[in-house]
Amino acid sequence: MSLTKHELAKYMDHTLLKAEATQAQIQAIIDEAKEYDFASICVNPYWVAYGAEQLKDTDVNVCTVIGFPLGANTTAVKVAETIDAIENGATEVDMVINIGELKGGNDRMVTDEIAQLAKAAHDRHAILKVIIETALLTKEEIVRASKDTLNGGADFVKTSTGFSTSGAKAEDVKLMRETVGSDFGVKASGGIHSRAEADTMIAAGATRLGVSASVAIMNDEVSDSNY
User: Fold this and answer.
1) What pTM does this model have?
2) pLDDT tens profile 195-205
3) How confident is the model at residue 175 (pLDDT cuts 50, 70, 90)?
4) Distance (Å, rounded) from C-alpha 105 to C-alpha 222?
5) Residues tagged active-site
């Protein structure tokens, strides 16, 4: 499948999640998102209201992260974060699962938490993406986490925060796609630096890409960005 540049842009969550990001840097990604018509900007919760105001007359969504980057907040805190973010203008929220509980075999807890956040998001007309942090999981755990995401009623399963030991790998994206089936969202994020890498993730089954190298990818350049 050969995507046009506009089609490719709509796969991309144009991302800036660095702790040191300034308003000027957030404004820069907003301006780039408008220029290239990306699917969304993905920013930390503090910047959601600002981003939503700047993008209100566009079709670029505002995405944010919940329980980020470790996933070890309590469920109540994650739910409160989700509601606050949506009230501030987010229409997409990317939560991090409780990775320790997943690895400990407590799929019931993981699924229940996803379900609570999915309800909070869907009740407010937002979508939920679930970050499972594939770099920290075995293949069997990736399958379980993907099933938990599906069973919890989320909209996407997502590979990575971009803040762990590695980002997205095509073989993990393929495994996630095989697990959740053809109609569920799969987001690859972390370490996608070029058009070739973006195309590889899409070919493996990704329907959304989390990238900070979005502009470089659109211009057929290679970025050294970590996310």
Assistant:
1) 0.96
2) 999 999 999 99
3) very high
4) 39
5) 94, 158, 187
